[in-house]
Design a protein that fits this description.
- The complex is a heterodimer of chains A (128) and B (145).
- The termini of chain A are far apart.
- Chain A has 128 residues and is mainly α.
- Chain A has one domain: 3 helical TM bundles of succinate and fumarate reductases (Up-down Bundle).
- Chain B has 145 residues and is mostly helical.
- In chain B, helix 1 runs antiparallel to helix 2 and helix 1 crosses helix 3.
- Chain B is elongated and about 65 Å long.
- Classes of the chains: A mainly alpha (128), B mainly alpha (145).
């Protein structure tokens, strides 16, 4: 085993065992999405309407708020992974690719933060 | 390196004959992007407006409804589009779980399930909206607007 070049140092070590990580995370979040979003859709359809008092009452229920926070984290993680794959496939310029991947990470983190904080504010009774 | 420019580079969508399996593949990405951007922004905006008080929530709803509270054309296009994208992405996602297990690659089976996904998503979208708008449709047909 060589010590000089990068290739020489890694030759013979096998894979980093990271190759399937992204793929597997995408599947885990997809499976969780099936459950969480089905629950979300059915819950909305069961509400009498989507007016302010109905929605804020619903979001104030502890189990609803918990499920909504889990849903938000899961959805934004799933969409971050998915958008990344699309960008890697279609954007060839390395600088543009880096910039857009940075952007989707900001978007996913920002969107999730806005949604989770909003749910928490309503659930803890702070809704004005 | 020299290459005969008349010969297509492979893989290349524009040179292959289209089939249901290619259609669901590209629709999965398009629906996914739509849900990720439009759906994600709408979801965060909806929750933020609910957390910002009744007036903010009302102005959120105003974008998608007419004065009586019924859905307007913007609401129909965005919510209709998102529900179709959701069903398309969900059904094809479930199909991918089966493919991930190594099943369903036989040509006829693959084609059949791809078609079922596409038609299933359209029918589920129409079914859901027919059900949602049914009371309004009944009122219109009874002459009560």
């Amino acid at each position: 085993m060589g010590t000089g070049t990068g290739l020489g140092r890694v030759r013979g070590l096998g894979s980093a065992k990271q190759g399937a990580h992204h793929w597997w995370q995408q599947r885990l979040t997809a499976a969780a999405n099936v459950l969480l979003i089905s629950w979300f859709f059915l819950s909305l359809l069961r509400l009498p309407n989507l007016t302010y008092p109905v929605i804020t009452d619903w979001l104030s229920t502890p189990l609803v708020a918990i499920a909504m926070i889990l849903l938000t984290a899961n959805v934004f993680w799933h969409l971050r992974l998915g958008l990344q794959v699309v960008i890697e496939d279609y954007i060839e310029n390395e600088a543009t690719k880096l910039a857009v991947i940075l952007l989707i990470n900001f978007y996913a983190a920002g969107g999730a933060a806005v949604a989770i904080f909003s749910i928490a504010k309503i659930a803890f009774g702070g809704a004005a | 390196m020299s290459r005969n420019p008349d010969r297509p580079l492979s893989p290349h969508l524009m040179h292959w004959k289209w089939g249901p399996h290619m259609l669901v593949s590209i629709l999965h990405r398009m629906a996914g992007i739509g849900l990720a951007i439009v759906g994600g922004l709408l979801f965060a905006w909806w929750l933020l407006s609910a957390a910002s008080g009744e007036a903010a929530y009302e102005s959120f709803l105003d974008w998608f409804t007419v004065e009586s509270g019924a859905i307007n054309i913007v609401g129909v296009i965005i919510c209709g589009g998102l529900t179709w994208a959701f069903f398309q992405h969900l059904f094809n996602g479930l199909r991918h779980f089966v493919l991930d297990m190594g099943a369903g690659y036989e040509l006829k089976t693959n084609r059949r399930w791809a078609l079922i996904v596409v038609w299933g998503a359209i029918l589920a979208t129409l079914g859901l909206w027919l059900w949602l708008l049914w009371p309004a449709l009944v009122n219109i047909s009874a002459g009560e607007f």
